[in-house]
Amino acid sequence: MMSLLPRQSLLFSLLKGVNFSYFIFTVLLLSISLQANSHDLPDLSIQVKQNKPSIVGIGLFTPIQSNAPKILGTGFVVGNGKYIVTNYHVVSTELDTTIVQYFVALSGEGRLPKTHKMELIGIDPVHDLAILAIQDTLPAVSLANNELIDDGSEVFMTGFPIGAVLGLYPATHTGIVAAKAPDVNPARNADELTIKMLKRLKVPFLIYQLDITAFPGNSGSPVFNRKTGEVFAVLNKVFVSAGKEAALTNPSGISYAIPVKHVKALAKKNNITL
């Protein structure tokens, strides 16, 4: 018979007291738990595919100047499929009444997107939101409830980060909710505090700070909760530390988004059912 070394003998003595049935059962439970956790979130590629038809480019069309609209940002379809949500700053340009000029939504994908003439229905400059109407019907996204989601939640955003230079090709970026903070732009000194900023300091409202890469063309993009697939916020700005050019060449990875409850409030104010 082969003799055991001292360390092997000690290990054997310890193992004799182990209930191996319980040990194996525990390992199996741990394995099942890890597999379940790995499948908590739906497949991102499926979520993106489902939501792409609801994402539109927001453009300004001036036929006398160009046969193609100028892309201003991103929007998404809500309600009965005839309403578009975007940022107020995306459509805040005053239309030239001396010529034919109007806002359009661009749907589809590729070099020949479909153009939908839009009518401005309601604006909320404080929360940087706007709702526009189209004649056609497009697939609408699902909106989350009014509760703020937790910090650390995984999210994704689909939009047009650099417009549509090569055609309409929506891009998706992923990240997390980093924080919920008052919507106050930081100022380097007191001279930079505008009247609007001072008013916000007195009555601030919470917005999401996202750890996600976004670009100027992403303004108005819907931000989705990875767990539910619902839109919980509207991206409206990015943190830029070294001038506007740096927003493209050296993005900070810090973005901000307006909670969806403000979209619902604006819709209700304009008798739109979401």
From TrEMBL:
Q: Which UniProt keywords apply?
A: Hydrolase, Protease
Name the protein family.
Belongs to the peptidase S1C family.
**What's the name of the protein?**
Serine protease
**UniProt-listed InterPro entries:** Chloro_Bact_Ser_Proteases, Peptidase_S1_PA, Peptidase_S1_PA_chymotrypsin
BP GO annotations: proteolysis
* Chain segments annotated as coiled-coil in the UniProt record: none
Keyword Hydrolase belongs to the record: yes
Say if the entry is tagged with keyword Protein transport.
Answer: no
Top-rank lineage group of the source organism: Bacteria
Q: Extract the GO molecular function terms from the UniProt entry.
A: peptidase activity
